[in-house]
Amino acid sequence: DSNEFGIFNSLWFSLGAFMQQGCDISPRSLSGRIVGGVWWFFTLIIISSYTANLAAFLTVERMVSPIESAEDLAKQTEIAYGTLDSGSTKEFFRRSKIAVYEKMWTYMKSAEPSVFTRTTAEGVARVRKSKGKFAFLLESTMNEYIEQRKPCDTMKVGGNLDSKGYGVATPKGSPLGTPVNLAVLKLSEAGVLDKLKNKWWYDKGECGPKDSGSKDKTSAL
């Protein structure tokens, strides 16, 4: 039996290799086997690259959240949400007089099991284990920092709920008060504080570049 590789048989052999299905004919000469082996290796690389990129694309697609705001979170029941058991975020909801935040606080304080966590790490771990069924509300600076750290599987959703600055505490009447205020104001006006945040949050991030337009300039909830 002859095993001739004409134009049609060659195309059939190439297609079978590319689809990883094999073929009912195979080259017999040394040169034909070398060419066939090179083609098999080429198709292996192409198919593997395509599969890896497709998996990454689908993973990113699944991370697109249906929740875009606090209002979205408050009006649904599938995704639980909570805060640290103590701290500024919990106090923000407890004291808020805004209807949507009052509704969220009513849910959080009566939820079973409890949606409050002892530490930030516990809250982030709960998000990762929940498969999209738990949202952890925390200060935006910490949120953005965690988002830029491996394993890169969390993201900040929606805008900030409130805006509060950080301060340096000194004793009442301390002579350090005015110099510290002036120094912080000078650093803020010169953009040094923003540059430092961008350096340590984003430039040294572990999850790839982030759009500079989304870098908030406030230490906010």
UniProtKB/TrEMBL annotation:
<keyword id="KW-0325">Glycoprotein</keyword>
<keyword id="KW-0472">Membrane</keyword>
<dbReference type="InterPro" id="IPR001320">
    <property type="entry name" value="Iontro_rcpt_C"/>
</dbReference>
<dbReference type="InterPro" id="IPR015683">
    <property type="entry name" value="Ionotropic_Glu_rcpt"/>
</dbReference>
<feature type="transmembrane region" description="Helical">
    <location>
        <begin position="38"/>
        <end position="60"/>
    </location>
</feature>
<protein>
    <submittedName>
        <fullName>Alpha-amino-3-hydroxy-5-methyl-4-isoxazolepropionic acid receptor subunit GluA4</fullName>
    </submittedName>
</protein>
<keyword id="KW-0407">Ion channel</keyword>
<keyword id="KW-0813">Transport</keyword>
<feature type="domain" description="Ionotropic glutamate receptor C-terminal">
    <location>
        <begin position="32"/>
        <end position="203"/>
    </location>
</feature>
<dbReference type="GO" id="GO:0015276">
    <property type="term" value="F:ligand-gated monoatomic ion channel activity"/>
</dbReference>
<keyword id="KW-0406">Ion transport</keyword>
<keyword id="KW-0675">Receptor</keyword>
<dbReference type="GO" id="GO:0016020">
    <property type="term" value="C:membrane"/>
</dbReference>
<keyword id="KW-1133">Transmembrane helix</keyword>
<keyword id="KW-1071">Ligand-gated ion channel</keyword>
<dbReference type="Pfam" id="PF00060">
    <property type="entry name" value="Lig_chan"/>
</dbReference>
<keyword id="KW-0812">Transmembrane</keyword>
